[in-house]
Amino acid sequence: MIRFFDFFFSFLGLIILSPLLILLLVIGLFENGSPLFTQKRVGYYQKFFTLFKFRTMDKKTKSVPTHLVDNSMITSFGHFLRYTKLDEVPQLWNVLIGDMSLVGPRPCLLNQKKLIFERKKRGVFKAKPGITGLAQVSSITMKNPVYLAQTDLKMIKEMNLYYYFFYIIKTLILVLKNRG
Question: Quick check: 44 pLDDT over 70?
Answer without folding.
Answer: yes
